Amino acid sequence: MKGTFPINKFRELRTPFYYYDTKVLRDTLSHIRTEVAKYGNYSVHYAVKANANPKVLAIIRENCLGADCVSGGEIRAAIKAGFPTDKIVFAGVGKADWEINLGLDYDIFCFNVESVPELEIINELAAAKGKIANVAFRINPNVGAHTHANITTGLAENKFGISMQDMNHVIDMAHDMKNLRFIGLHFHIGSQILDMGDFVALCNRINELQDKLEARHIRIEHVNVGGGLGIDYGHPNRQSIPDFKSYFETYNSHLKLRPHQTLHFELGRAVVGQCGSLISQVLYVKQGANKQFAILDAGMTDLIRPALYQAFHKIENITSDAPVQTYDVVGPICESSDVFGKAIDLNGVKRGDFIALRSAGAYGEIMASGYNCRELPQGYTSDELV
Ligand code: LLP
């Protein structure tokens, strides 16, 4: 075993696959619990979209987090993993009728509503079942996040949420709908945010909105600030737990939460990102005209983030101590964007070496596709490979 990887066990498996270090996951969850316990009225829902591997979900559920879902499939995955239904929130701009009905049947905690037409349909479907649905409005706060354009969501130009101008009108509408109970406001400005100033900007915006609503005697029980806390992709190791302390402290010192209110968070990447690696083997080392390529058996179908967002994942040769050489690390897919990294320094690579793509626990396995008729990668935990 080199570093923290059980290489001998890896040799028995077919690559590529995801490997989840459960010690890292449990340490991360324990940090979250310690920080959240400092504030009596904070509640964390795990954003299932980041990773729905059943073994990962089970560990998160054991640590008492709720589940933030964006589809009927995610609601089912959360329930299967044992998340209590009254700790499930359901967001998404395009909820289909069957998905809303599923949420109603399970009496989930809350629908985060993103438009007037959706509000009307939830009211209608709830009426048909003789139920009252809890709803929160996702407000688009028009706050930018200093992150990749494809993963910023809180700007007026994005498709998400209800605009601040429409908020009063929508709240009035909800009050007149008999099968809805308006319980809160929901926000989410983007993902992979490392500058706490972005969260401060969101807090300031929420404070303004709350003051306005209070002036109209509108009572909000729950404020949900979404997720977005980023991780350190540059230097992943067992110690690189995201900065939960600063994150929760930022909300505590900048958001004017009323004493009766609960503050909800929907963290995805920060919970699971650092515990996962994509494990691959080198198929060929190929000498090009002026560089050499390490061709892996993993490709963009297994981990699409580098191709889609030009995301950086640290690449390590975990079975070689040979002198370092420079490689373009690529996959086998018939797309020129199937590149994990250019000019990467790795311990000398040979066929069969194991290569780890680190910090791949979030938006890795779950975003895998079968393009080129490839099989989906499996996911294994360190608990299984001992
Ligand atoms: N809540 C809502 C409403 C969201 O849209 C998201 C993520 C989250 C919570 C969780 O955000 P997190 O804590 O993970 O940043 N595939 C992209 C990330 C897309 C994030 C989409 N929404 C990536 O690989 O970077």
Automatic annotation (TrEMBL):
GO molecular function, one example?
diaminopimelate decarboxylase activity
**In what residue span(s) does the Orn/DAP/Arg decarboxylase 2 C-terminal domain sit?**
17-361
The Orn/DAP/Arg decarboxylase 2 N-terminal domain covers which part of the protein? Answer: 33-272
User: In the record, which positions carry N6-(pyridoxal phosphate)lysine?
Assistant: K49
UniProt pathway: Amino-acid biosynthesis; L-lysine biosynthesis via DAP pathway; L-lysine from DL-2,6-diaminopimelate: step 1/1
Write down the InterPro entries for this protein, in alphabetical order: Ala_racemase/Decarboxylase_C, DAP_deCOOHase_LysA, De-COase2_C, De-COase2_CS, De-COase2_N, Orn/DAP/Arg_de-COase, PLP-binding_barrel
Q: Which cofactor does it need?
A: pyridoxal 5'-phosphate
Query: Which catalytic reaction applies to this protein?
Result: meso-2,6-diaminopimelate + H(+) = L-lysine + CO2
Annotated substrate binding lies at R269, R305, Y309, E335, Y363
Where does the chain bind pyridoxal 5'-phosphate? G228, E266, L267, G268, R269, Y363
Q: What is its EC number?
A: 4.1.1.20
- Quote the Gene3D superfamilies the UniProt record gives: Alanine racemase (3.20.20.10), Lyase, Ornithine Decarboxylase, Chain A, domain 1 (2.40.37.10)
Q: Which UniProt keywords apply?
A: Amino-acid biosynthesis, Decarboxylase, Lyase, Lysine biosynthesis, Pyridoxal phosphate
* CDD domains (UniProt xref): PLPDE_III_DapDC
Q: Which GO terms describe its biological process?
A: lysine biosynthetic process via diaminopimelate
Active site per the UniProt annotation: C334
How does the record describe its quaternary structure? Homodimer.
What the record says about family reads: Belongs to the Orn/Lys/Arg decarboxylase class-II family. LysA subfamily.
Function per UniProt: Specifically catalyzes the decarboxylation of meso-diaminopimelate (meso-DAP) to L-lysine.
Instruction: Name the HAMAP family on file.
Output: LysA (MF_02120)
Protein name, please?
Answer: Diaminopimelate decarboxylase
- Species source reads Bacteroides muris
